[in-house]
Design goal:
It is built from 15 helices and 2 strands. It is mainly alpha-helical. It has one domain. The longest helix is centred in the N-terminal third of the chain and has 30 residues.
Length: 362
């Protein structure tokens, strides 16, 4: 919004030329999202507490200490993330950029789905919300719509191809099937973050780290000079997604202020589904879907632990892990919650560096 409002006045006020630069607007987006989070955070949490007298329903089959330590904590804190993210993005991004709207569509669409899931859990006083099949169907419709939208925004030469990192200009052509692959990337990322969100601060920090990586990737991919130098695919217009990712970093940091152990609020599916969808859609737009699997490797590990656990239990009647997702396994082994969370953050940082390395190694 500021971009469109202020640029026409550059001739009269040369300082406004700063708004031409993505880096300046990305910095402004981060700070704005952070300030919005700080201003709205405490009142929103008080309001959620007044509505949720018993807090988020705690699974009885989960770690025993959760029934004592986390009982009464309100959920739906993802509303704070989405408010700060949306306000900041609309304020600082170029709203004529189609990629910005496509990514916002996925983020808010998955956020609304997560809100409905949280709402049903609260009203039923149960950990069961929107039925799994319904949830996947809605995610698929949103993801496929966004995938088709994004491919239409891209140059035809790369629109329906999957880029392979570490190789120069290696693209796997999928033709009209590619939107389905992009849809699964968004759905997979959304559900992976959702599975990871089980301990205070566990999901939000790796999301912030991944958003930082993709802010840089979006900036480089959207810049012809940098893309040519690094021999990565140039996707015109995607540089603007750096502003969106910066806003995601700011809103994530603002939420972490309230979600730090012991959490005053949980993000719930409102936040986790939306955040995963945001990362997935940005990776599709920047042609770095595989890099997301590396950078967000922590989310992949958590998801794989659930798949392995379910598959092996149905096949043999025995468990591979004491409990899935993986962070609950370490809880059962007696690790303290801060130990698990911080060590998982370290793993996320290492994987983020590995993801960044793929930009240079060709």
């Amino acid at each position: 919004m500021l971009y469109a409002l202020l640029l026409p006045h550059v001739a009269a006020f040369h300082a406004l030329n700063l708004f031409r630069y993505i880096t300046f607007r990305a910095g402004g987006a981060t700070l704005t999202a952070l300030v919005v989070s700080f201003i709205l955070g405490a009142p929103l949490i008080r309001w959620l507490r007044s509505l949720q007298r018993h807090g988020q329903p705690i699974r009885t089959d989960g770690p025993e200490r959760h029934l004592l330590e986390k009982k009464g904590t309100p959920t739906m804190g993802g509303v704070l993330i989405l408010l700060a993210l949306t306000v900041s993005t609309l304020l600082w991004a170029d709203l004529q950029n189609g990629y910005v709207w496509a990514v916002l569509f996925v983020t808010l669409g998955y956020g609304v789905l997560g809100f409905a899931d949280d709402f049903l859990k609260l009203t039923r006083h149960s950990s069961n919300g929107v039925p799994g099949r319904v949830k996947l169907a809605v995610q698929a419709v949103i993801g496929l719509s966004a995938a088709i939208w994004i491919t239409h925004l891209m140059p035809d030469s790369i629109a329906n191809d999957l880029a392979v990192p570490l190789f120069k200009n290696l693209l796997i052509p999928f033709g009209p099937v590619f939107p389905l692959i992009a849809m699964f990337v968004m759905m997979g990322a959304s559900n992976a973050v959702n599975l990871t969100d089980g301990l205070d601060g566990l999901a939000i920090v790796p999301t912030i780290i991944a958003a930082g990586v993709f802010a840089l990737i979006a900036y480089l991919v959207g810049n012809r000079i940098f893309a040519h130098y690094l021999q990565i695919n140039f996707v015109p217009g995607t540089g603007e997604l750096a502003v969106f990712c910066a806003a995601l970093i700011g809103s994530g940091l603002g939420f972490l202020w309230f979600n730090a152990p012991p959490a005053a609020v949980f993000m719930g599916d409102t936040g986790s589904l939306a955040l995963g969808g945001a990362l997935g859609s940005v990776s599709v737009a920047t042609k770095n879907e595989i890099v997301l699997a590396i950078t967000g490797g922590l989310f992949v590990m958590e998801t794989v632990s659930v798949i392995v656990q379910v598959f092996w239990y149905k096949r043999t009647g025995r468990r591979v892990f004491l409990m899935a997702p993986l962070h609950h396994h370490f809880e059962k082994k007696g690790w303290a919650e801060p130990t698990i969370v911080i060590r998982f953050w370290i793993v996320a940082m290492i994987l983020a560096l590995a993801g960044l390395a793929t930009l240079k190694i060709r």
